[in-house]
Design a protein that fits this description.
Transmembrane segments (chain A): 12-30, 101-122, 143-167, 187-207, 233-253, 265-288, 308-328, 348-366, 373-399, 405-429
Shape of chain A: globular
Region (Disordered) (chain A): 46-80
Order of helices and strands of chain A: HHHHHHHHHHHHHHHHH
InterPro entries (chain A): MFS_trans_sf
Strand order of the largest sheet of chain B: 2-3-1-4
Oligomer: heterodimer
CATH topology of the largest domain in chain B: Alpha-Beta Plaits
Biased composition (Basic and acidic residues) (chain A): 46-62
Organism (chain A): Cochleicola gelatinilyticus
Shape of chain B: rod-shaped
Number of strands of chain A: 0
Number of helices of chain B: 5
Radius of gyration of chain A: 23 Å
Strand content of chain B: 5-15%
CATH class of the largest domain in chain B: Alpha Beta
Strand content of chain A: under 5%
Order of helices and strands of chain B: EHEHHHEHE
Distance between the termini of chain A: 28 Å
């Protein structure tokens, strides 16, 4: 049995508190009137070079750029009106920033738990012989699905009913003037969003509950009844999952840009989710192994996880590129704006994540020997997780905060908050059952697994 | 140069593995082992050095990537930068997404084919090669270990090999080493 070290508990609580404070500060420092936005900008026009605050500097320079572009159109309207409209626009972006930061971090950690659940189901459906020694680690990671899912649901409710301004399609005023969103209103409406979210989350949590319950019962059983049941519900879950995951990606991510659509978006989100999940399984396994809890996990298990990290990193890149290249090549205006805003306003994160999510793991994890070196896997894993956080960041931020983005107080605060919560939930769940499943038809093979 | 080897024939891969371990423990030199199929772990117990073919493949892949890049850069950007359907051919990086499928395929093509050719050359395999098979049964269900008799006592070595489970033991005089 695993006992939660008190240091780890303290560590995660400190993360939650510090992250919560930083996020609150992010909410409090967001401007509430256009006058404040104007003041913030004026402040930094004067001493912009003093680099008092990096985030404001970026905002200032972005303001200068957009001020120039709108200056050219000024002759059509009065200068004052367009200035006010511009400030209004920037105000909304700045107000969205802490909300987006919260949403991105909440989704990022939620998708790790969800991806782990899918990976767990695949291991059962495929009757994998190497992984049963890791089942309890995976079960513990999926424990985050319940609190993380509830948080996602609340955030979706807040956005779907326009308490905050994350989803443009939730704003009745915007919809009234937007033919395209009106046409999609049958799908994109607050009630529909929440009903679908409830079905998705309900189905995932249902499978998780029963899979874990059967796994516990299997420990005390004297036949393979529970294993067979898990096999059946895993196969059914995987069918349910691939449909709901795809729809979830339209609802929760793609609808930030309600004018834009991509058919392989669901797969793209799925690929990122799987890399993060497998990386997290590997990291948690290495941590527990380092503390001497997983005596049957050997280098070959780590090697297999590292191979999955490597393979799914390439799969993610393949989907990223397929989506990008098809749109870039055809260059249809209604599709290509998605990438134009990202390349113009998010150049470094947009291309930087390619280096982190593709080049880095491909070059570091190609060598078979390196996949067995634990610190190498940890190093690559941290870069992969950071890269996929930026991936989610670049999927969400351009639509909600546009040019007013920065990775500052609210973003880092939200990451710390959810990281603390994730660690707390996962390692608390780890104490609920022995770290090795007792009887599974493949447990002997898994214990003696050697590659 | 005439040399003597002893051919010991086994019919089971597990016994063969054990025999290889024993022979190596006694410091006899194993010239070669002939098996009808890959026996997992045989290279390890024989103490063979790991293959470096994956490393050559990686380097061939880099060559392929370079070839693709230089080729597309010369043809599409330097030699005749036409406007084809509005694609930007001012610099390589601007039009790179269109070249990535070629870059990928040539990387794989070079890595795969040159590695296979390397394998053929290192294993000395070609269409009209004369088979180096000491006993036709080793392609079906027999395993043959060829031990260098050298200056060892042939009687003692034969007895030893017999004890490791060999079914047939024969002394072979080679005219040449191969």
């Amino acid at each position: 049995m695993y006992t939660l070290p008190s240091k780890l508990r303290l560590f995660s609580i400190i993360f939650m508190v510090v992250g919560g404070l930083m996020l609150t500060a992010g909410f409090l420092t967001a401007p509430s009137t256009t006058a404040e936005v104007k003041e913030m900008m004026a402040d930094h026009h004067d001493d912009g070079h003093a680099a008092k605050n990096d985030s404001h500097e970026i905002e200032t320079s972005n303001h200068e750029v957009s001020a120039q572009t709108h200056g050219e159109n000024v002759h059509e309207e009065t200068a004052h009106d367009s200035e006010e409209a511009h400030l209004e626009h920037t105000l909304h972006q700045m107000q969205n920033r802490p909300w987006s930061a919260l949403y991105i971090a909440a989704f990022f950690f939620f998708m790790i738990a969800l991806g782990t659940l899918a990976f767990y189901a695949i291991q059962f459906a495929a009757q994998a012989g190497w992984s049963p020694v890791l089942f309890r680690v995976m079960e513990a990671i999926t424990a985050y699905l319940v609190p993380g899912g509830i948080i996602m649901f609340v955030l979706l409710a807040l956005s779907g009913f326009h308490i905050n301004h994350l989803f443009v399609w939730a704003d009745p005023e915007v919809v009234a003037h937007d033919k395209l969103i009106q046409g999609k209103a049958g799908w994109l409406n607050g009630t529909g969003l929440l009903i679908r979210a409830a079905i998705f989350l309900g189905g995932w949590i249902l499978y998780r509950t029963y899979a874990v319950k059967f796994s516990r019962r299997d420990d005390d059983a004297d036949d393979n009844r529970w294993f067979k049941k898990t096999f059946r519900i895993s196969a059914a879950f995987l069918v349910f999952f691939i449909y709901t995951e795809s729809m979830m990606s339209w609802d929760w991510i793609m609808s930030f840009d309600p004018h834009w659509f991509s058919t392989l978006f669901g797969w793209y989100v799925f690929a990122g989710m799987m890399v993060c999940a497998i990386t997290t399984i590997a990291l948690v396994t290495i941590v527990l192994k380092g503390q001497g809890y997983l005596e049957f996990v050997n280098d070959s298990h780590i090697h297999d996880l590292a191979k999955f990290m490597f393979g799914f990193s390439i799969f993610w890149t393949y989907l990223w590129f397929s989506q990008f290249m098809l749109i870039w090549y055809a260059n249809i205006p209604e599709e290509v704006t998605y990438f134009i805003t990202r390349i113009e306003d998010y150049k470094l994160p947009f291309f930087g994540m390619l280096a982190m999510n593709f080049l880095f793991p491909v070059l570091l994890l190609m060598n078979s020997d390196y996949k067995r070196v634990n610190w190498f896997v940890v190093l690559t894993g941290i870069v992969i997780l950071a890269g996929h956080y930026i991936d989610v960041f670049v999927m969400v931020m351009p639509a909600t905060v546009g040019t007013s983005w920065f990775i500052g107080l609210p973003e880092i605060g939200a990451i710390l908050l959810f990281f603390g919560l994730f660690v707390f939930v996962v390692f608390t769940a780890m104490t609920k059952a022995p770290l090795l499943v007792k009887r599974n038809p493949f447990i002997k093979e898994s214990k003696n697994y050697h590659y | 140069m005439a040399s003597k080897v002893i051919h010991a024939i086994y019919t089971d891969d597990d016994i063969l593995m054990q025999a290889v371990k024993q022979v190596r423990a006694e410091h006899y030199h194993i010239e070669e082992v002939y098996t009808p199929f890959p026996v997992h772990g045989l290279d390890k117990v024989m103490g063979l050095a790991p293959t470096r073919i994956a490393i050559t493949s990686f380097m061939y892949g880099l060559v392929g990537l370079t070839v693709a890049t230089l080729m597309m850069n010369f043809i599409m950007i330097e030699d005749w930068p036409q406007n084809i359907g509005g694609k930007p051919s001012f610099s390589y990086i601007e039009n790179m997404p269109a070249f990535v499928p070629i870059m990928f395929e040539l990387t794989v093509f070079f890595a795969a084919h040159l590695m296979v050719i390397t394998f053929y050359m290192r294993s000395k395999l070609w269409p009209f090669k004369k088979a180096e098979n000491p006993d036709v049964r080793t392609t079906d269900d027999h395993f043959l270990m060829s031990v260098d008799a050298g200056n060892h006592d042939v009687e003692k070595l034969s007895k030893f090999l017999y004890d490791t489970g060999a079914l047939e033991i024969s002394l072979i005089e080679n005219d040449e080493n191969h």
